[in-house]
Amino acid sequence: MEPEFYTPLGAGDTPKSRSARVSRRSFIKGIIATGATVASGSMLGTLAGCSAETSSTTGIAGTVERLITLNINGKSRRVDVLPQETLAMTLRYKLGLTGTKLGCDRGECGACTILIDDVPTYSCSTLSHGVRGRQVTTIEGLQAANGDLHPVQQAFVDELGPQCGFCTPGQVLSAVGLLKVNPSPTRDEARRAMSGNLCRCGAYDHYLNSVMRAARTS
Amino acid sequence: MTKDMMRGFDLYQPANLENALNLTARLGKDAWLMAGGNDSLDWFKDRVKNPVALIDLLAIDSLKGIRETAEGIEIGATTTLTEIANSDLVKSRYNLLAEAASHVASPQIRNVSTIGGNLCQDARCWYYRAGLDCYRAGGKKCYADTPEGMNREHCLFAADRCVAVSPSDTAPALVALDATCLIHGPEGQRSVKAEDFFIGPAVDIERMTVLEENEILTAIQIPDRWAGANFYFEKVADRNTWDFALVNVACAMRLNNGTIEDVRIACSGVECVPKRLTVVESVVKGSPVDDEIAALAGKSAIRGATPLNYNHFKIPLLENLVKRAIRNS
User: Fold this and answer.
1) How confident is the model at residue A26 (pLDDT cuts 50, 70, 90)?
2) Better pLDDT: A23 or B32
3) How far apart are CA A64 and CA A51, in angstroms?
4) Contact A119, A104 (CB under 8 A)
5) What is the pLDDT of residue B194?
6) Residue A33 lies in a domain
7) Distance of CA A129 to CAs A65, A70, A86, Å?
8) Could you tell me which chain B residue has the CA closest to the CA of A102?
9) What CATH number does the domain containing A169 carry?
10) Nearest residue on chain B to A120, judged by CA atoms?
C-alpha cells in the first residue's frame, strides 16, 4: 500500500477536513500540529549523538530510528515519532486520528483504548515505537468501506449506549476486542471485559445492553 | 495535558538478552529497564524520574511464554498477566497465580503488563510518587508517617523510616507457591527465592527488590511441589478495577483427610515486601480445617501489627482474610 507521509498543516484523515475554507477546527488543528513540529525540533539536540547507530529492529543494539512505518487501520503510515512519544499522541497529533480520546493520560480511564493485534490496549500507556509491525485499530478503522457502521457501533447507537460520548470510542473498541475472543459473552463476562473503561455519565448499563445486542447481532 | 509530556530519552529495543545486558553494562545508571510500561511511563509523565536511556525489553522473545520444565513450570518475565490468567497450564496446576494475575488493575492493563513488571514495580506511596524528597527518594523525611499524613494505604509491619507497602497481587501468590526468580547479570545467572527477592526499607530504602541496576529478571520458576494443591486468593481494594490491594492474601494448602499437612500463606499491602505469614503456617499445620483453627490463624496473623493514624482498619481486614484463606482453601 502507498505510504502516506505526515503533513503538519491541515493534516486529517477525512477529506472533509481538507476543504478549501479554513474551519475553526482545522485552524486549531494546524496550530497544534505546528506546535508539535516545533517541540520535536527542540528534541533533535538530545538525539543527534545517536543517529550514527544502527536501528535495533535488526537485532543490533542501538537507539530507534525516528521515521517509522506504523500499520494503522490496515494502512501503512510513515510518521516521525519521538522516542518518548505515546501511541495516543502519535494517533491524535501526528496522524489526525482524533477519534482516540485522551482522558487521564495515565491508564486510569480507558478513553484512549485501541486494539493492537485485536487486543484492547491503552494507547496513552504504549510507546509508538513498540507497535511497529503490529496491527493497530482505532475507532476510525471500524466502519466498512461503504460507510456502514461496525455491528458494535450500530448496537451502541440502537441501544442509546453513549451519553456525552467522550468515552465511547474506547468503550466500542473494548467491546470489539471482547467479541473477537468471546463472540457470545454472558452479561457478567461483558461487564468484566468493559471494566477498564470509565464512563463519567454513568451509562454503564446502557453500554452493557449495547454489548449484549452486538453479541446477538454480529 | 501538555504538562504531561515526557522528557526526551534515547530508546533502545534490543532483540535478545545479550544485547540488553550489554546495554545495561554500557549505560549504567543512565539506563531504565521497561517491560509493559504501566509503572515506568507514569514516572516519566510526572517528570519525577527522567532516564537518559530507556531499554524496552518487549522485543526479546526468549523472555516470553510459559514452558513446562522437569521441575515444574517456567514463566518468562515479560509474559503478560492476561496470558498467565488464561493459560490452561497455569490454571490447571497453579490456579492461585492465575487468580492473582486476573485481579491486577484493569483488562487493558493486564493485556500489556508483565509478570516481571508486576514483581518489580515501585512503591505506590503518593508522597513518593509525587516526587517529594522522602527517605525512599534519597531524602531525610517521611511525609506519610506524620500526624497529618494520609496513610490509609500504608503498612502495618516492619516500618523503617518508610511506610510504603508491596503493591503486587502476583507477588504473594508466587511466595505461597515457593517460586524462584531467575536473574541474569553481567556475571551470568542467579536464582533467588520469591520471598527473598523483595527487600524492605531496613535493607535498602531506595529499592524494592534485590535486582542490581545491571541485572534483568528473566523468568519465574514454580516447582511441582504445590501443583494442584488447594488454593485461596482474595484481594480487597476500594474499587474492583484498577485499584491496588488494600490487603490481599494468597494461600496454598495440602490436605490429608481434612488435616492441614502443609501450607504456605502470604499477603501484600501490609508490609514493604509480600509478607509470608510463617507464624500462621506453624499454627495451622497438623490441625483439621475448622472455624477454631481459622480464628486462631487470623489472630496470629495480626500479632505485632503497628497501625499508623489512618490504617487501623487493615488489622481486622488482614485477620479476616487469613481466617477465610485457612477455612476455604
Assistant:
1) low
2) B32
3) 9
4) no
5) 98
6) yes
7) 9, 9, 8
8) B1
9) 1.10.150.120
10) B108
**pLDDT tens per residue across span A154-197:** 999 999 999 999 999 999 999 999 999 999 999 999 999 999 99
| A24 and A100 belong to one structural domain | yes
Q: Locate B180 and state its grid cell.
A: 524462584
Tell me how close the Cα of A3 comes to any Cα of chain B, in angstroms.
Answer: 24
CATH of the domain at B19: 3.30.43.10
* Domain of residue B6, residue span: 2-59
**Contact residues, chain B, for A57 at CB < 8 Å:** 13, 15
Could you tell me the residue range of the domain that residue A45 belongs to? Answer: 15-104+124-133
Segments of chain B with pLDDT less than 50: 1-2
Angstrom CA distances, A41 to A38, A48, B132, B254, stand at: 5, 11, 31, 62
What is the percent of chain A where pLDDT is above 70? 72
Contact B108 A196 (CB under 8 A): yes
Bridge-partner residues for A79, per DSSP? A68
Determine which helix (DSSP H) or strand (DSSP E) holds A110, and give its type and residue range.
none
Q: Is A130 on the interface with B (CB under 8 A)?
A: yes
What pLDDT band is residue A218 in, cutting at 50, 70 and 90?
A: confident
Number of domains in chain B: 2
Query: Is the Cβ pair B10, A192 closer than 8 Å?
Result: no
Domain annotation covers residue B18: yes
The answer to whether the beta carbons of residues B281 and B298 sit under 8 Å apart is no
Contact B16 A59 (CB under 8 A): yes
Q: What is the ipTM of this complex?
A: 0.95
CB contact under 8 A, B23 and A61: yes
List the single residue in B12, B15, B59 with the smallest CB-CB distance to A63. Answer: B12
Residues of B with a Cβ under 8 Å from any A Cβ are 1, 4-16, 19-20, 22-23, 37-38, 41-42, 44-45, 53-54, 56, 58-59, 82, 105-109, 111-112, 240-242
Q: Which one has a higher pLDDT value, B294 or A13?
A: B294
